[in-house]
Amino acid sequence: MRIEKIIVNKLFGIFDHEISLNMSDRITILHGKNGVGKTTVLRLVNGFFNSKYSELRAIPFEKLTIFFDDYTHLVILPKQIEDVMRKSFRFSLLKNGTNNKIESFEYKSKAKYLGSDRSFPISIIDEVIPNLERISARRWLHLPTDEILNLDDIIERFSHSLRV
């Protein structure tokens, strides 16, 4: 299954983008003015496929649709929950040209608070979670995967260890 097209609506509350991928040459060049969201669209797609939902939470958008070459498409809809800082996401896989859902689920954020209003000391992360090396005040290197994680990534992945 390969991605054929990506559509994002109301990126930053402003931009609507439709990106058709060049399937024959397998290379697509994104170009546009600075600040219109080229890299941000790629971050959204990467955030979904690599389960980095903190990326999806951090970027304001109304709807992300990814079309595949097997005549299906994925729709990602963010929605606010509980307080203004938390989001859940509705993921729906549909058959192209219809609203028939093949699969659908909702992901609810495990992070209780985003930003600087955490209810626990950040230093506990270094004490409780193995295989993390702090590389800056709010960034860690996850040694098994060589991923750089921010605080929200850690809350999402390791909330069971942190008891948040």
UniProtKB/TrEMBL annotation:
Domain Endonuclease GajA/Old nuclease/RecF-like AAA: 1-92
Pfam families membership: AAA_15
Signal peptide span: none
Domain of life (superkingdom): Bacteria
Protein name per Swiss-Prot or TrEMBL: ATPase
Organism: Crocosphaera watsonii WH 0003
